[in-house]
Amino acid sequence: MALSAGSRSKLWILMITAFIDMVGLLMVIPLLPFYAKSLGAGGLVVGTLVSSFAVAQLISAPMWGRFSDAYGRRPALLVGLGASVIAYVIFAFALSLPHPLFFLYLSRIVQGAGGGTVSVIQAYVADATAPEERAGALGWLSAATNAGVALGPLLGSATHTMGARGPGLVAAALCILNMAFAWRYLSESRDMTEAAESKADNTQRSRSRDAIVRVVSHSAAPASRLIWIYAIAIGAFQGVTSMLALLLSARFGVTEQTIGFFFAYMGTLSVVTRALILGRMVDRYGEARLSRIGTVLLATGIALLAFIRPLADPAGVAAMLGGVLPWRAVAVLPYLPLAIAVAFLPLGTAFTFPCVTSLLSRVISSKERGMYMGVQQTFGGVSRVLFPILFGFLYDRSSALPFLVSSAMVLFTVYLGLGMEAYARQDAKPAAA
């Protein structure tokens, strides 16, 4: 469903803030595997670097959710942006300091602690939109962040010409400007009267640890199933993307100067899909069905990456084809299925995650929304901790293995999502119901 003009106007400031934040983040993320590789590290170290971010995010996400429920979304977001500034400065100087790998880990941990505000941003969207508009609103927000995904890596490659410190320092400067912008223009979305009542009545307010236990002990409940779908799919996707740069480097000779183009390609597709296609697809298929379509696309793209390789002898293949195509044209043929496989990743995530999060916002009350979205990030954080480490371990043994395992895990979430149509048009209700 398309967003109303009123809802869209409320989201513009948040979209700009999220866009600038993502530009800074994606200036440094694509460089991490290459920095680790330059220090002699392999897939397992790259996986633990990615996981260190998720560990800090895992710990901080419920805290940010409770903090934003009690004190507002705006202050929680500003503190998170401040943590990002510190992380970028550490990243900028990491390679020039003693024990550079330690400082790379430290930058990821500090960044992850601020990254717990993802649940705050999602709660902000849920506060500012009607239930039937949330999937579209989350799609618009995702479009803004993925515009940052498209621009950030290119800007990171450009600033890398300034030296190893360039991307980190420029990202820190952008984040400082972003904090000033949010401080000036971002208004509070939380109903602070309701927040005050929530703070005053501790017996009525569910604790995040109780919600976590409920997700595990009542896994068949709609909110629990949605959280499991999100956690498995985001972990599998995160694990694969942490290995993607190593795979492309080993098979196709991708470097620090060229990896940004792959991320820009994925980001551009995400922007187009989430801004122009997602709303229409939700209207046509509904959130529950569309999320399953997305998981199938995501699983297909991941599986294809396991098998795509450049031709070992393009001249020989050209000769076998009778010279119809010059060997240089034959040499680029594997890049076509590679482009298709990589395209399925942003398409799959664009259809899956906004719909799952929107469905989750329908089955929980507004008083618990920030907390439960924090719990969603907690479960997603656990998978983002475990999967990159597992996939890094698997990658060091076979470059195809983590992609095949990830694809199977994503396909399993289709089963978990069966029957969710019954909740797609219900008003929000308490998660315990």
Question: Secondary structure elements and their pairing?
Answer:
Blueprint lengths: L4 H24 L3 H7 L4 H29 L1 H22 L5 H16 L2 H11 L5 H26 L6 H20 L6 H9 L7 H10 L4 H31 L6 H27 L1 H19 L8 H7 L6 H5 L3 H28 L3 H30 L5 H16 L17
Helix pairs in contact: 1-4, 1-7, 1-8, 2-3, 3-4, 3-5, 3-6, 3-11, 3-17, 4-5, 4-8, 6-17, 7-12, 7-16, 11-16, 11-17, 11-18, 12-13, 12-16, 13-16, 13-18, 17-18
CATH architecture: Up-down Bundle
Strand content: under 5%
Estimated structural class: mainly alpha
Q: Got a strand count?
A: 0
**The CATH homologous superfamily:** MFS general substrate transporter like domains
SSE pattern: HHHHHHHHHHHHHHHHHH
CATH fold-level name: Growth Hormone, Chain: A
The radius of gyration computed from the alpha-carbon positions, rounded to a whole number of angstroms, is 21 Å
Number of domains: 1
By CATH reckoning, the class would read Mainly Alpha
Number of DSSP helical runs = 18
Low-confidence stretches: 427-433
Largest sheet features? none
Protein architecture, described:
This protein has 433 residues and is mostly helical. It has a single domain (5-184, 206-423), classed as Up-down Bundle (Growth Hormone, Chain: A), CATH 1.20.1250. The protein is built from 18 helices and no strands. Helix 11 packs antiparallel against helix 18 (401-416) and helix 17 runs antiparallel to helix 18 (401-416). The two termini are 27 Å apart. Mean pLDDT is 80; it is low at 427-433.
